């Protein structure tokens, strides 16, 4: 699986939400996404985990499906009973070319070894005109002095997205309420040409 080995999301699934700001963080993320996504149009939440953000997106009127490679995160998501799920690696999703309306990646690209296959795959499955929103520089938001690889650096993600046919729009952000120091997380917004 294309993911760094410092987290086992199967082991973390039960405690994940409570240790990541819980509902307060998820509501802030969902409200920022709500302002950027067309009402009533399906959204694919890639690396959507327990579905805590997706659940609030559904409540805000966006039919949202979570796709994730961790069976335990998917199990937690299914227990909500509000969000359809797909167990799959995000670099090889079970969708036809150009079949997905909109896609989001919240807190995914900072934990992968190489973001390129994730960007290539989301570009493949998105419809022309579809919107892709991803967090960028997640670790910098938590701690500007961190020394980990910036696999979600904004300039890197912008370049990769341009190369596979996205146009970039204005950035947005959300406050990580419920987390230490209420960090401000950046959202990069791309439209499939
Ligand atoms: C930091 S969590 C974020 C979860 C959710 N987006 C949120 O904001 O609460 C990262 C998630 O990405 C999933 N993930 C990691 N690598 C993946 C891959 N290659 N394909 C699909 N999901 C992956 C993990 O299982 C985990 O659920």
From TrEMBL:
Classification of source organism: Bacteria, Bacillati, Actinomycetota, Actinomycetes, Micromonosporales
GO MF, any single term: methyltransferase activity
GO biological process, one term: methylation
Transferase recorded as keyword: yes
Domain of life, source organism: Bacteria
Keyword Lyase: no
PANTHER family listed in its UniProt record: 2-METHOXY-6-POLYPRENYL-1,4-BENZOQUINOL METHYLASE, MITOCHONDRIAL, METHYLTRANSFERASE
Gene3D superfamilies assigned: Vaccinia Virus protein VP39
Methyltransferase type domain location: 44-133
Keyword list, A-Z: Methyltransferase, Transferase
InterPro entries recorded: Methyltransf_11, SAM-dependent_MTases_sf
Protein name, UniProt field: Class I SAM-dependent methyltransferase
């Amino acid at each position: 699986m294309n993911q760094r080995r410092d987290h086992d999301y199967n082991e973390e699934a039960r405690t994940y939400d409570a240790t990541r700001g819980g509902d307060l963080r998820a509501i802030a993320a969902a409200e920022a996404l709500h302002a950027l996504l067309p009402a009533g149009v399906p959204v694919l939440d890639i690396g959507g985990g327990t579905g805590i953000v997706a659940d609030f997106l559904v409540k805000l009127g966006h039919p949202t499906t979570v796709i994730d490679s961790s069976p335990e995160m998917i199990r937690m998501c299914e227990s909500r009973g509000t969000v359809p799920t797909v167990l799959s690696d995000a670099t090889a999703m079970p969708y036809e070319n150009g079949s997905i309306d909109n896609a989001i990646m919240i807190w995914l690209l900072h934990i992968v070894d190489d973001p390129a296959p994730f960007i290539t795959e989301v570009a493949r499955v998105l419809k022309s005109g579809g919107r892709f929103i991803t967090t960028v520089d997640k670790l910098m938001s938590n701690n500007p002095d961190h020394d980990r690889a910036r696999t979600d650096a904004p300039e890197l993600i912008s370049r990769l997205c341009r190369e596979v046919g996205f146009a970039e729009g204005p950035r947005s952000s959300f406050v990580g309420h419920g987390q230490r120091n209420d960090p401000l997380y950046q959202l990069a917004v791309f439209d499939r040409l």
